[in-house]
Automatic annotation (TrEMBL):
Protein name: C-type lectin domain-containing protein
Listed PANTHER family: MANNOSE, PHOSPHOLIPASE, LECTIN RECEPTOR RELATED
Record carries keyword Methyltransferase: no
Keywords: Disulfide bond
Organism, as annotated: Acrobeloides nanus
Domain C-type lectin: start-end pairs: 3-117, 136-260
Highest taxon above the source species: Eukaryota
Lineage: Eukaryota, Metazoa, Ecdysozoa, Nematoda, Chromadorea
Length: 263
């Protein structure tokens, strides 16, 4: 048990930051966050005993909020220990130097060992096999990677698990889900369904589970009679949009599928 009643695990295998975060996430956690001086020093000591002086990945990244540094669990930086001024552009991730415990920004594609953190009351075991638990959302999530599905088949797939396509009700939820989708479906042209659609072809988009539409994040006004998607990364970059913007797609077309189970 470490600071703040969190559990930590070191991984000596060198991976990209994205692969490291996926490994942590699939185990019910995230890359470790150093949110104060005590935790930062604790993690440095843990790494010094495991990584033979190599620098390693922590959970900081500029990828989730368009160049702003956040932790991979989407919490803000309340403490920093940079060795040099950091870069504020997409594509950078945080590595800690050992034994100094100072931080440097590195290309997220570099290979480094890493440390995961887990809540001591982790609910991973409440989720079905092959589902991932999101502590921030308090939901189990299933990322279907076998093939792309049309809207009707995506709905049926989620129903077969007594779940629904993802629904989103705040900017914070949207930021988290957009990050998860980028992590699990990383290709530039990957399109992923959200559970919003226009069943009456009148521009009145509703959530598939009947929950209220109290938040939207369209990148342009949607056409009638279509189904909602996260805009693919290629569209985000080309149009200089905020990550996580929504678009619409023909419901007979195929896209990636993410199902949700609320706990």
């Amino acid at each position: 048990m470490g600071p703040k009643n969190l559990c930590y695990e070191t991984f000596t295998e060198a991976t990209t930051w994205y692969q490291a975060e996926e490994k942590c996430y699939k185990s019910g956690g995230h890359l470790a966050s150093a949110s104060d001086s005590f935790t930062n020093t604790f993690l440095s000591g843990l790494a010094d005993g495991s990584f033979n002086g190599k620098n390693y990945w922590l959970g900081g990244t500029t990828n989730y909020l368009g160049g702003t540094w956040t932790w991979s669990d989407y919490s803000n930086f309340t403490y920093t220990y940079w060795a040099n001024d950091p870069t504020y552009n997409i594509g950078y991730c945080l590595a800690q130097l050992t034994p100094s415990a100072q931080w440097v920004n590195s290309s997220c594609a570099l290979l480094k060992p890493f440390i995961c953190e887990f809540s001591s009351n982790n609910k991973t075991n409440f989720c079905p096999n092959d589902w991932l638990y999101s502590q921030a959302l308090n939901k189990c999530l299933y990322f279907y990677k076998t093939s792309d599905l049309n809207w009707a088949d995506a709905i049926q797939l989620c129903k077969s698990f007594n779940s629904t396509l993802i629904t989103i009700h705040s900017y914070a939820e949207n930021t988290l889900m957009a990050g998860y989708n980028q992590l699990m479906f990383p290709e530039d042209n990957d399109i992923s369904w959200i559970g919003l659609y226009d069943p009456y072809n009148n521009g009145n988009y509703i959530w598939v589970d009947g929950s209220p539409v109290n938040f939207t994040y369209w990148y342009k006004s949607p056409q009638n009679g279509l189904c909602g998607v996260f805009a693919p990364w290629s569209v985000i970059l080309f149009n200089d949009l905020d990550e996580g913007k929504w678009g619409v797609f023909g419901c007979g077309s195929t896209a990636k599928v993410t199902c949700q189970l609320s706990l």
